Amino acid sequence: SKVAVLISGTGTNLQALIEQVKKPSSSAEIVVVISNRPGVLGLKRASLAGIQTRVVDHKLYGSRSEFDSTIERVLEEFSVEIVCLAGFMRILTGAFVRKWNGKLLNIHPSLLPSFKGVHAQRQALQAGARVSGCTVHFVAEEVDAGAIIAQEAVPVLVSDTEDSLSERIKEAEHRAFPAALELVASGAVRLGDDGRIIWKTAE
Ligand code: GRF
């Protein structure tokens, strides 16, 4: 499957996906990396891997729908089939999410449905959680509420700060996102019409 990865920053999740699709067993090929911010490290990672990049700077668009339409045109240009949001810090319009329903994946740094929204790691610390982790899910119109594809748990240590917990969660993200992409790209997992995950059972 042809994959686009959308980023906004350092791109360590992008890097993990790049390493994954290099494997001969991979069902996925990253054909373009799109950033809403110019000059971020993730763009350099893509270039170093020989992947084409595009910058669609949200500040240059008068509306979300114009921004999303430009993203859409890039996805069509590269015949993209699956979109991975890897630290992409923009909320996409309902129209875009509906069009890409079942083909749009996001990574969130908590065990959803716990700790939705921003600063999920901080929320876990403030809640006194002893376990947190990351979730890869299909994007639905409700933020951080789409069907769960993969999760990995990590311990929360009493000595943890937001940074130390975020670092531990990120290590889990770099395993969970590649695993989730393979599940979707290989057809092992798909999204049912009822919004629930369907696992391809061994016939
Ligand atoms: C990750 O921690 C992810 O959970 C969150 O944004 C961060 C992106 O980091 N959505 P990177 O750009 O992949 O390093």
Task: Summarize this entry quickly.
This protein has six helices and nine strands, in the order βαβαβαβαβαββαββ.
Q: What does the main sheet amount to?
A: 7 strands, mixed
Let me know the average pLDDT.
97
Biggest sheet: strand arrangement: 3-2-1-4-5-6-7
Question: Which molecules are bound in this entry?
Answer: 5-O-phosphono-beta-D-ribofuranosylamine
Share of residues in strands? 15-25%
Fraction of residues in helix: 25-40%
Shape: globular
Oligomer: single chain
Rounded to an integer, what's the Rg over CA atoms?
16 Å
Query: What is the count of β-strands?
Result: 9
Q: Structural class, please?
A: alpha/beta
Q: How would you portray this structure in words?
A:
Trifunctional enzyme that catalyzes three distinct reactions as part of the 'de novo' inosine monophosphate biosynthetic pathway. In the N-terminal section; belongs to the GARS family. In the central section; belongs to the AIR synthase family. It is a single chain. The chain contains 6 helices and 9 strands, in the order βαβαβαβαβαββαββ. The radius of gyration is 16 Å and the shape is globular. The mean pLDDT is 97. The chain binds 5-O-phosphono-beta-D-ribofuranosylamine. The site of 5-O-phosphono-beta-D-ribofuranosylamine has 14 residues, from α1, β5 and α6. 5-O-phosphono-beta-D-ribofuranosylamine (GRF) binds next to α1, β5 and α6.
Core attributes:
single chain, binds 5-O-phosphono-beta-D-ribofuranosylamine, Trifunctional purine biosynthetic protein adenosine-3, 203 residues, alpha/beta, seven-stranded mixed beta sheet, two-stranded antiparallel sheet, globular
